[in-house]
Write a structure and sequence with these properties.
binds arginine; 461 residues; Fumarate_lyase_N; Ribonucleotide Reductase Protein R1, domain 1; amino-acid biosynthesis; Fumarase C, Chain A, domain 2; lyase; 61% helix; Fumarase C, Chain B, domain 1; mainly alpha; 18 helices
């Protein structure tokens, strides 16, 4: 039997392999609500402009409402033979209301229909992600406020560099997530145009009102070019790019959590709720959730690269390749969402071990820069010379196997005679972080101010 929705010119039905490769219903069914919303806006506009009768429009709209109830009530039977969500819904509508259902598709094609549905779906998903990103920012900012003066080693090359505060470190992620949200918002603004009414590719001769459907669907305006309207997928690419970057940020934090929770570091303890055990080694506390946040980033990046690859060779306007825009996108957006939930829980519950972090902050001569700065400030040495003198002092301390502040004054004056015991005032880790008062620096009052500022912005202050 040929396809009942488009099979007029076909004598034979599709091969099973065609059906298998062609059907998208297994995944595009998830935007049934957006499809119905778009159809209801379309048919209302058709009636308002005298293209279908008011009675037919009412029957169609009510029938679509019933289809929606059936899908949400779990009584709807999806059919692969009907390819996709659009044809599944329209076919069921015809069963419910009869031939008037056939008027719904006037002045419309599945090409503008799917573009509309997908925009509506991605727009909703972006709004939900924004809320989750804000939730993670709040969890980080709250932890940062609690630990505005908790000292830890700051690293470069993963080697102890200079002491920082744990709060400062967490706020770095709040900033990143803030930019992630900005990227999603930018993408949302650009995507918020209505493709509906572009029809197959060239527009339509029916006197439709694309501004009306734009308004009904909360789009800012209709898309200006019908070819572009059905061909454009940069709105998804942008969202996937934003998702890939956000995932990368989560992955970096996840990696840090994995490092911090090793017995060797012991900086941070995750709650039992976010830790798993080993079936053979009873002592283990594994940070599986953090590892998976790190690992799942690959899928999100993969979705972006996958879709870029699909789109890059496509001539205008619609090609069926574009149906490949969905599965990767759904997977990427779902993945980011579950990663955000896991990360927010981990951050909310995690407890730093301030003693261990403080000890580590003092190791590795992390206050050497403070010593060099002191030589510049107090002895007026040029920084390069101060750097050299400090290097020699560090070497001396290292030979003796002791911390900088444990050196005797004679050891210091043997290297630079003008040094006084005043120098000891800058060598402790707390003193070091307290001195970093430059804008954006790690000094605890800075951190408190920024954490409070964020919490206020996030509506938690
Ligand atoms: N399922 C299709 C998709 O996702 C809908 C558009 C089909 N259009 C067409 N002319 N075959 O892209």
């Amino acid at each position: 039997m040929s396809n009942k929705m488009w099979g007029g010119r076909f004598a034979e039905g599709p091969d099973a392999a065609l059906e298998a490769i062609n059907a998208s219903i297994d995944f595009d069914r998830r935007f049934y609500a957006q499809d119905i919303r778009g159809s209801q806006a379309h048919v209302a506009m058709l009636a308002d402009n005298g293209i279908v009768s008011k009675d037919d429009a009412r029957a169609i709209s009510e029938g679509l409402g019933k289809v929606l109830d059936e899908i949400e009530g779990g009584t709807f039977t999806f059919s692969r033979a009907l390819e996709d969500i659009h044809l599944n819904i329209e076919s069921r509508l015809a069963e419910i209301i009869g031939p008037a259902a056939g008027r719904l598709h006037t002045a419309r094609s599945r090409n503008d229909q799917v573009a509309t549905d997908f925009r509506l779906y991605v727009r909703d998903a972006v709004d939900a992600l924004d809320e989750q990103l804000a939730g993670l920012q709040a969890a980080l900012a709250e932890k940062a406020l609690t630990h505005s003066a908790t000292v830890m080693p700051g690293f470069t090359h993963l080697q102890s560099a200079q002491p920082v505060t744990f709060g400062h470190h967490l706020l770095a992620y709040v900033e990143m997530l803030g930019r992630d949200r900005g990227r999603f918002t930018d993408a949302r603004n650009r995507m918020n145009e209505n493709p509906l009414g572009a029809a197959a590719l060239a527009g339509t001769g029916f006197p439709i009102d694309r501004f009306a459907t734009a308004k009904a669907l909360d789009f800012a305006r209709p898309m200006a070019n019908s070819l572009d309207a059905v061909s454009a997928r940069d709105f998804v690419l942008e969202v996937l790019a934003a998702a890939a970057i956000a995932s990368t940020h989560l992955s970096r934090l996840a990696e840090e959590i994995v490092i911090w929770t090793t017995p060797q570091f012991g900086f941070v303890k995750l709650s039992d709720k976010f830790t798993t055990g080993s079936s053979i080694m009873p002592q283990k506390r594994n940070p599986d959730a953090a590892e998976l946040v790190r690992g799942k980033t690959g899928r999100v990046i993969g979705a972006l690269v996958g879709l870029l690859t699909v789109i890059k060779g496509l001539p205008l306007a619609y090609s069926k390749d574009m149906q490949e825009d969905k599965e990767g996108t759904f997977d990427a957006l779902d993945t980011l969402s579950v990663c955000l939930a896991a990360m927010t829980g981990m951050v909310r519950d995690m407890e730093p071990n301030s003693k261990v972090m403080r000890k580590a902050a003092g190791a590795g001569y992390a206050t050497a820069t403070d010593l060099a700065d002191w030589l510049v400030r107090e002895l007026k040495l040029p920084f390069r010379e101060a750097h050299h003198v400090t290097g020699r002092i560090v070497a001396r301390a290292s030979e003796q196997g002791i911390a900088l502040e444990k050196l005797r004054l004679e050891d210091l004056t043997a290297i630079e005679p003008k040094i006084t015991d005043q120098v000891f005032s800058v060598l402790g880790v707390e003193k070091s972080v307290r001195s970093r008062t430059s804008y954006g620096g790690t000094a605890p009052p800075n951190v408190r101010k920024q954490a409070r500022g964020w919490l206020k912005k996030l509506g938690k202050g």
